[in-house]
Amino acid sequence: MNPTIRITGARQNNLKNLDLTLNTGELTVMTGVSGSGKSSLAFDTLYAEGQRRYVETFSPYARQFLDRMDKPLVDKIEGILPAIAIDQTNPVRSSRSTVGTMTELNDHLKLLFARGAHLFCRGCGQAVCRDSAASILAAMGKRSAESGDPRLVVTFPIQVPANFTEDEVRGFLDQQGYTRVHENQNTEPASSLKESESGISVATTESNAPKSKSKSTSKKSHAAPALRTLQVVQDRFRFSSAETSRVMEALDIALKMGNGLISVHAVDADGKDQQVWKFSDKLHCADCNISYSNPLPSTFSFNSPLGACESCRGFGRVIGIDFGLVIPDENKTLEGGAIKPWQTPSYKECQVELEKYAKKANVSINTPWKYLPPEHQDWVLHGDPLWKGGNQAWKTQWYGVQRFFDWLETKSYKMHVRVLLSKYRSYTTCPSCHGARLKPDALLWRIDGKSIQDMMLTPIVQLREFFDTIRFEGAMDAAMDLVLTEVKARLKFLCDVGLGYLTLDRQSRTLSGGEVQRINLTTALGTSLVNTLFVLDEPSIGLHPRDIHRVVEVMHRLRDAGNTLVVVEHDPQVMIAADRIIDIGPGPGERGGRIVFDGSPNALKNATTLTGKYMGGQLKVEAPRPLPVTSSTPRLLLEGVTANNLKNISIEVPLGRLVCVTGVSGSGKSTLIQDVLYPGLLKIQGKPTEAPGAFDRILGAEQIAGVVMVDQAPIGKTARSNPASYVGAFDPIRKLFAQAPLARERGYTTGTFSFNSGDGRCPTCGGTGFEHVEMQFLSDVYIRCPDCDGKRFRPEVREVEVEHLGRRASIDAVLDMTVSEALEFFKGLRDVQLGLAPLEDVGLEYVKLGQPVPTLSGGEAQRLKLAGHLAEAARSGISTTKLAKKGSLFLFDEPTTGLHFDDVSRLMRAFRKLLGAGHTLLIIEHNLDVIRAADWVIDLGPEGGDAGGELIAVGTPEDIMQNPRSHTGTALLEYTQAMTPEAISAVLTTGSMQTARLTAEEPSQGRSLQTVLKEKRRFSENIDILHAREHNLKNISVSIPHDKFTVITGVSGSGKSTLAFDILFNEGQRRYLESLNAYARAIVQPAGKPDVDAIFGIPPTVAIEQRTSRGGRKSTVATMTEIHHFLRLLYMKLGTQMCPTCQVSVEPQSADQIVARILRDHKGQHIGLMAPLVTARKGFYTDLAKWASGKGFTHLRVDNEFIATAKWPRLDRFKEHTIELPVADLTVGSDNEAQLREAVRHTLEHGQGVMSIVWPLNVLHQNLQAELQQEQFSVKRACPSCGTSFPEPDPRMFSYNSKHGWCTGCFGTGLQLQGFDAEQTGEETAWNAWYEGETHTCNSCHGARLNPVSRAVLWREKSIAELASLPVSDAHTFFTSLVLKGRDAEIARDIMAEIRGRLQFMQEVGLGYLALDRAAPTLSGGEAQRIRLAAQLGSNMQGVCYVLDEPTIGLHPRDNRILLGALSKLEKNGNTLVVVEHDDDTIRRAEHVIDIGPGAGVRGGRVVAQGTLKDLMDAPESATGHYLRQPLRHPIQPRRPVDQNTAMITVKGARLHNLRHVDAHFPIGRLSVVTGVSGSGKSTLAREVLLDNLSAAVSMRTDPDWIGCDAIEGWQKLDRVLEVDQTPIGKTPRSCPATYIGFWDDVRKQFADTNESRIRGWTAARFSFNTGDGRCPICEGQGMRTLEMSFLPDVKVPCDACGGARFNTDTLSVRMRDKHAGDVLSMEVDDAIEYFAAHPRVRHPLQLMQDVGLGYLTLGQPSPTLSGGEAQRIKLVSELAKARMTEGVITTGRASRLPHTLYVLDEPTVGLSMADVEKLIRVLHRLVEAGNTVVVIEHNLDIIAEADWLLDMGPEGGSGGGQLVVEGTPEHVMKVRKTSHTGEVLHDFMQRK
What we know:
Helix content: 25-40%
Low-confidence stretches: 186-224, 878-884, 987-1019, 1781-1791
């Protein structure tokens, strides 16, 4: 891998054209003051590019679901690694989002519970399980032994109508063969039985019901006749003496007859029940008669309607009336106004009624509320217990507070009522689920005694211990292993980063930024990737100094694994642990963006930068003189807090002081302040809030004016939000402008100077200053508004200027001022100064007043929020009054988040200002500088979670330092001592304060541990795969060197692809995908975890597989490379619409012009005016219908049908809909012109400038769905000549797959295909491989594929069709020579880069000759492969592992060399290349070779050689090594002569595709090979001209209409024509060699002929595992079951019922020669040949399989598990088996002969190893020897060297090919090697042999 990442010319945000080289494999810290540009460099530049490039390797479909980052403003970035960001952004703010959902532990636990939990009955608490006959037998044995072996009676329940007589019952039982009833159970109506809690009704079936009563009962069924249950005796015995078979039979039958329910009665000598044991084979508690449903993963999800509690919908809390707010002061009496809402004039009558009814009920109205007895409080709140209800009840009975609010709810449509209700509402724990969020039944499922809710409430550290002890039994253990491993790993990582104190139920919105980041960090750790760039944003936030070493250890672990870390950080402990520090500055904002220091932590102490001075001890965060806390200092007391982990603590907060709450993470700080104190104070003040955590009381709240929480929640996110507006300084500025003389003269108000609303803002950009251009799958572009030039206001408004102190400025100039400039300009204007001063106080004096808030850094946004509160305090006038006035209590949650040392200093000064104004500051903080500066410290601990929650120390910082139990005190002491210049020098020389503990002892040579680790990494740069057992791999371990070219080879089916793709690629991609969100992963379904012990050192991987599909009829070179996607975007944004008729560009037209056209063209017609609301978009659109209905519209027109808005149907969500609003209808005429004008105006308003008319409307009276004519109009886009309107531009206008773009004559194919219509995609096989009709160019579009309107959009005077017709080389020249300026350049910046890059790579892989609009089906296999390669490899990354699947397939040896050159360039970029390949050229070029073998299938799966080419050749077991050492000698058998007398098939004038009137000869009875470079026309000649024409000729026995050539002669000797191509074979597990080749039908007939089958009347159909009664019903004949694991990969396990044999037990009882059908399917071909020796119809195809090297396969091996080479050869066998070489003799008179067959094989060596190629050659020779003609399209030199006759096409590909370069014997072709590429490589090959 390259050792560096090089950034050149970074200009993102405020960066000043930075150049930077980062070392890979290092931990680099970026620091600097807030707003200096750290995040711009780390996240917006580095991470954005690394993530964007890797995501580009996914398909366009997948990419739209992945948040692809914007392309950064940078000249170039070389050597970028795939990047993962770990930042503090908490993506979800919902109450349903918890730690469990964020870490995805909930998802894994759901699966664990659904698959492995045990159910416990809610009635009796006993375990509920499905009983089987075997489990009942075991239970009976155990219970009988315990009860002294009593007599047992086995019974089952049957229900009969209660009015049956005894005789009727006896007759009924006799019919069933039963004579005894053990007991009758109570009579009950059928209806009550059906509706009983169990949900089970044992309905009597018709066969069971007595015939005489059936009619009458059916007539009276509605009366629900009573039923009684009979316990019918099945058998009686003593368990000890009964035979097991008898007991089992009795149980089996009883279960069947009792519908799964049975009872076993233990009786005494008199037959009386002593005990009754009930059993059920369902999820049903037999004792309690309660049924349960099967658990699904969603049963345990509170985000799913199936699992969520119905009361709170999964939130765990409900919003309702909070009586704490209704009665805020419990010291008041009822008479004194305890009920707060009734003290207002509006509801005073309720107070009067309360006092009246209270006297009647003897409830005291003079006793304080808190001393009233509970029953009296209940009476007041909930009313009279004997409440009758009804509208008039309130006049005679007391209704209570609750019913008062219920009544108010009915009036909530009134605004003032809603406001009133909001004051008394708050969230309380859900009364139904008590906060568990789930339905009650979900909590009955337990694992080792714990329900899912128990797990949610257990701290992670304890949960980890619990999971270490969990085990599952039997097969479940293997299935659950995957989930358990994931759960354990995630829990371990959470503990590693110091989050063991959290619970999974903790809501994510209550987490601090640091906690969120560390949760994200665990995901990164869990991926175990290498060669990845991790970008972290202040991981130390929220961590106590004692715990910072944990994060440092995690980062070092990631770095030492071979990753690169870039960390934005201010914490000195993390900075000292870095390999390198980059300090960005020197100041914030525009004053920053430069690198002011770049070096080691050691060098930083001497640096003159701001950071250097603080790190070197020259500057300190100055702690102002503390305010003493004395006994007389007023205090706020919070007593008896027991919420969460707090252990009954009480605290005192000195008022008017800076108080810090400290303690290790999880000690209870947030609980104390955020969950208890803040909501508790709000409640006292009567403000709405959530219920506070448990505490006794708050004293002293009356001493504070209010309470303000300043948390880390983000502020405004729109571009219009800015600092001046946020602090309220913009309002007085606008007032000043409104008072200016010019403004008064023009009548401007303050609203005119608002850019959020009003008419003063620029109408084009809406006051944002930017034009937002959406770019769909590219990142959106923001362009300075062309009308106002980014100044936000109209020119007239900008003319108004304010004059002050001799200076003048317009409104846009003021917004462009920095805070310090504005303070100077507005000097002396108190209102403005009051707003702006806080911005300066918090250190934001450099920020411009109009800077959009989203562009502020995290630290700047945090301080802006503080400034807002400072400004609020200043405006409230507190600062100007005496301190006697009450101050507010400010609560801060880690305000130093994202702040540099210098920013902390400024923050402290701002804090002192607040204190000076009489406020109290209570701060949760870990920053030691802030703690040191506090007046008072409250320290919690000693640890986190359950080990915390105690009050450790209280006092001044000095007091805390003296306390030995306080971790904060220890850290403060160390910090105070360490931050002296002398101590810093010592620490920096040796290592670090805290990380010194990490760096172990130094080695004897005196080198640091980091150096040793780095060297170790360098020496062991391998991907290590340990003990792989996937598919047929035999526990193998391999090492693949990083940054090298490795080839994995071996015979076909040996396990190469399993190793390369199923293990290496899948794991690398899966680990990267795990860093993405679960939604993205559900779309880009990651592959399963392979069966392997461990994989170390795996980088992100990219696969370039050989897909056999070449694309459909609508695919072109441009769409396959995605160039067309970018062209579509380019034309949509920059193209000019021309009128296709008049050839002039479209212009806006007025509404009057539209009216004039309608009057001219439609006079006298009844028309409807339609406004388009939705144009071809997917969705339900229910809200749109509600809106239309509310506006009085009765109908909408959906997809040309009128639908009533009142009865709106559920539209197809996945179908594109066009919805129009019928605005008006009228008859056009001059008499109602005014009405028409008004209707057009309204319609254009609704349609936003676009409308249409439909006519004639009178046909709708008969049929609302009648077809109408329609004409579009637009005020924006119309032809000035003919007036035709055109639609808004849309990328779909240029798509061949969309009705908006395609030509209506050919639907985007460019061809006239018979029967092709709009419903076809063009991907169907019927239009590609199987299409036999003629293909002519479309007459409408002449092959351009698009409609006239789309073709009339021009850019640079070319239509998109003209650009698409250029060859790649010409298009590359066109785009590289383009120079764009201004707006065009900004919009097209990303598009041009994408197009140029893709064209460049297409040229590099030798495809410059292809036209961009060349249809995909006409490409050769080699061309299609290289196009995919070009598309994937254009991303230009390093550190990636590319896994390629036989890239040389379809490539001529000459092209192969070009490809290898492109691959070696990739490798030089610092990537690892792993290629699965058989090609000896590629193997010889490899630096490392792994040979898997020695055989195939079960005989392979071992590593037979690994190392260099020499190691491979020396390995005795390696078949590949053997062939490289001793290549085949050609020819294997003497060539068959081809001379003048040899009969020939002659093709004359072949001209299809790129063929140029070729005349070619194919000798009959010979082996002919058609070869040539890729794209030269081989497949066209052999398959489309020769094969297709001769197939028609032989079937007709006469000359057909020759397609693509003039004629073919000499074909008359052929009797049949067969083709073996590369289309894939079946992809379901039921497809296997036996069914694909077809001999399983014969085997089935043989089984049907056995005596046993005949006796049972079974036919061959019984032995089919695809359909019928014979197959296993559980797995449906697949032999395996798939356990769906939702977002995890599915798990496949052998079917429990049939054990993988595919058939049911009955079918398997039939045996033929000692083997049942399942045994036959599991036989290997080699054994089966012997077994079927007497059956030639089966033996023959088996023999062919053995001949082509497939003797190791089993007859029933599922097709999906076959390798590419195996599938190819099975297809060859299936074709050869159709034409038996020794059968099918054709008799003519007395003579007889074998049928003469022409075989055309398309690259049969695909996927074949050298050993398999030799077998193939022998099969081909056998075919020819049997008197057949064989034509092979091939590049493999072994096959070419064996040919009797060669046809070499060329000389180049595409338009440079299509000629027959030479035809003749191989020797003749070698002689003309100067003109033949094949001759040249064949000559070299024969020389080497």
